[in-house]
Amino acid sequence: MIPVLLHACCAPCSSAIVEWMLQNDYAPTIYYYNPNIYPLEEYEIRKAESKRHAEGLGITWIDDDWRHDDWLCAIHGLEDEPERGGRCLRCFELRLTAAARKAVELGIDTFTTTLASSRWKRLDQIEQAGHAAEAAVPGSHFWARNWRKGGLQERRNQLLRQYAFYNQRYCGCEFSITEKCK
Ligand code: SF4
User: Fold this and answer.
1) How many CA atoms lie within 13 A of 89 on its CB side?
2) Which end of the chain is flanked by fewer CB atoms within 10 Å, N or C?
3) Ligand 1 atom 3, closest CA
């Protein structure tokens, strides 16, 4: 089995990717680091669902802190950007750099992200952020894969119903609450 650190944005987006990895000789460790999510109550719901998913499969699940103030500082000046704009790129960079650091800390060569499974997000931004994280953290390697392909988008929707996951109605941050995302 090949170890991979999987940065998970939420349980629904993780489900089909984790299933595919387990069927294809990958051993995912789930890393939950999403300080972008607001408010705290919403964050706790999404986190609990991710933990429930991982623990049900016997997968290691790692939680990181909800430092929303730090996230707000990181995206300062980009608050009014539209979704899929500059704020989102910065948001991806922050989360994927943390994932790269965690992978190196754990001795896992490769990291990837469930963000690349959402049709509401720009793959080019995710790849740019992943490669920037890889460059910033020596020893890390970003697995740039389109996790929507190969039937995974359809499988995601099946598993969403099968696990009865909470299905969020917006991307995550306070600036996306009025924007349709999921
Ligand atoms: S809309 Fe989503 S990806 Fe963009 S900054 Fe907000 S939480 Fe991050």
Assistant:
1) 11
2) N
3) 88
In this structure, what CATH number is given to the domain that contains residue 53? 3.40.50.620
Q: Is 88 in the pocket of ligand 1 (CB under 6 A)?
A: yes
Residues 6+ apart with CB under 8 A from 150: 20
| Whole-prediction pTM | 0.96
- Domain holding 162, by residue range, is 2-176
Atom of ligand 1 nearest to the CA of 172: 7
Q: Is the CB of 66 under 6 A from ligand 1?
A: no
In a domain? residue 182:
no
Q: Which residue lies with its CA nearest to atom 5 of ligand 1?
A: 88
What's the number of domains the chain is made of? Answer: 1
Residue 120 forms part of a structural domain: yes
